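CO-FOLDING WORKSHEET

Operator: S.A.
Ligand of interest: zinc ion
Run index: 277
Mode: holo prediction, single chain
Checklist:
[x] sequence pasted
[x] SMILES validated
[ ] output reviewed
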Amino acid sequence: MDILQISKYLQYFKGIKLNKDILDQLSEFKKIAVNKGDQEEAKNIWCLEQVYKVINHFLTAYKQLEKKEYYSAWCKLERADIELHFLRRHLDYSGNKYGLEFIENIINQLQKLFPYQVFSSRESTVKKWRCSICNQVISLRNSCGHEIGEIYNGEQCFRIAEDIEFHGIAIVTNPFDKFAVLFPEGKEYNYAMLENLMKNWTNPYDKWELHIVLDLNEEFKGLGRNDPCACNSGEKYKNCCLRTGEDKHEHYKILFLEKDLKNFKRQRKQSFKTWKN
Ligand SMILES: [Zn+2]
Ligand SMILES: [Zn+2]
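OUTPUT RECEIVED:
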């Protein structure tokens, strides 16, 4: 395949497994472009490599979800999200080019269905940074001129951390690094929402949407604003649980929008509840 054919292959790919040879082919084409000094071409090829990685991570995550390997799937989705983030500034994929808008949207919704709430976060100071392109040590006074995230000779520029002073580990709920999920001893995460999803999500290219609505808890139904609160606090409802939101729970609904015709009879609304803990 030439580059145009690879681009078309990725654009229309609807299979479950990408052709592995493509990455090798792209890497060969990139060498040729770099040798010719064609920076534009090298960058285009880098973009195609990123597209490949995003699709591949997404499909792997889908397969892992089917096999109930939830943490692995979580990591793959995060990987896909990071690669997409790198790609975004170099490739405009609006109009669902390479199916990337679809994947981006699905990742975002899937992440909300995972039960992970606490993460560990390393607190450290980096004393020395190197440039991944030229290997120079970077300081305030000494910049090599390579810009982080830019593509040089078909490779993305990043900073390599050296000489790291480690301070400790913090437990956070909104981590920079989503891989560092904490698995507290004796506590099992509940994957019911993902399990329910996977009963109906029979093809990775099915379109579905997650709707999160707030539902009133049973004991608050029919309660007036000035009535005593159902939680027995002695306060009026309007000054108590109505204000704090304790009277409601989140209700997750998954709506399948498009399915393959052969799977049509499976099409139905999937709905289940979660409770705030
Ligand atoms: Zn540099
Ligand atoms: Zn109350």
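REVIEW:
Helices lie at 3-12, 21-36, 39-66, 70-88, 100-113, 192-200, 241-244.
The CA atoms of residues 34 and 183 lie 45 Å apart.
[x] output reviewed
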